[in-house]
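Researcher: Here's a chain I'd like modeled. Treat it as a single chain, no partners, no ligands.
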Amino acid sequence: MIGGLLFSFWRFMQIVTLIPTLGMLAYFVDRYQKSNLLTPNDILVLFIVSVLGAAWAILTVLRRKSTRDSAMFVSFIDLCFVGAFIAGVYELRNIANADCSNFSADSRFSVTINNDGLSGDAPSLRLNTNKECAMRKASFAFGIMNCIFFAITAFLLLFMHRTRKDDREVATKETYRRRSHDSRRGHSRSGSGHHRRSHDSRRQYYV
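Model: Modeled as a single isolated chain. Structure tokens:
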């Protein structure tokens, strides 16, 4: 029960982080296609992995019963996604140290003296953000997060498989014990009936 709830939570986290990732990377793919240029590998690899990962996460959530029944297979696919996201993040690694935003200050400073006293304009600060750089960096961060998320769900699925296997073994042993007990009771009743018949025949013989 707890394993299933944790699995659903981390799957939800995967979906929440993957949908923005594939949306941001789709922007770059579309822009390069409109310019008749090949999409760079650093964007294309993580984009493909994000699309497949989001589809896989949604499918396994919608088919939870099948996911529980084939937990080992789903765990293996999740581990494959861990490797795929590592490859995507590695391709996009150059964006990690990029500075996507900076502050600029207006250096104008003026002071005016009038009858009311002093008045002036102080320098103002502005935040300048490079949108494309920020989108790449956010995709890079989401890629790292999903490396961790898919690793967590893979181990949760292994735990669920082990728990399910142990429950089956306990149920099998319990069924075997009950059948053995019923069988012994049946033999004991049959032996008691045979003993009574023998005793009655002896009494008839002596009489």
